[in-house]
Amino acid sequence: MKNWDSCMFPLFTMHTTGHNPRGTKTHRVRQRFMHKLKYFVDKYEKGTMCVGCGRCVRQCPVNIDIRKVCDKMNSYMPVE
Ligand code: SF4
């Protein structure tokens, strides 16, 4: 049986125990961008998991723009 799935869906990370480490939209959106733009880069040192096609920018129903997310991530200054 095949199902459409996405890391943006609430049940994507649901464990059989009922625990869900990414139970909120915030957790899921954060993971999407951190995985694409930070974790993958840190782990494989082969650039981001984005080729800049713009599809997600055009299709996003709530106008999340990966370019603006990049700007925010790049301008982030950790609080010391
Ligand atoms: S711009 Fe294209 S490659 Fe980059 S995250 Fe969006 S859909 Fe994926």
At a glance:
The chain is an all-alpha fold and 80 residues long. The protein has one domain.
Main sheet attributes: strand count, strand direction, barrel closure: none
Number of strand segments: 0
Uncertain ranges: none
- Give me the strand/helix succession: HHH
Q: How many helical stretches?
A: 3
Q: Averaging pLDDT over every residue, what do you get? A: 91
Query: CA-to-CA gap between the ends?
Result: 50 Å
Rg over CA atoms, rounded to whole Å, is: 15 Å
State the helicity in percent bands: 40-55%
Q: Indicate the structural class.
A: mainly alpha
Ligand inventory reads: iron/sulfur cluster
Strand percent estimate? under 5%
Shape: globular
Task: Domain count, please report it.
Answer: 1
Secondary structure: elements and pairs:
Layout: H1 25-44, H2 55-59, H3 66-75
Residues 50-56, 66 line the site of iron/sulfur cluster (SF4).
Essential attributes:
80 residues, single chain, mainly alpha, 44% helix
Structure overview:
With 80 residues, this protein is mainly α. It has one domain (10-74). It is 44% helix and 0% strand. The protein has 3 helices and no strands. It has helices at residues 25-44, 55-59, 66-75. The longest helix is centred in the middle third of the chain and has 20 residues, at 25-44. It is globular and about 40 Å long. The model has no long low-confidence stretch (mean pLDDT 91).
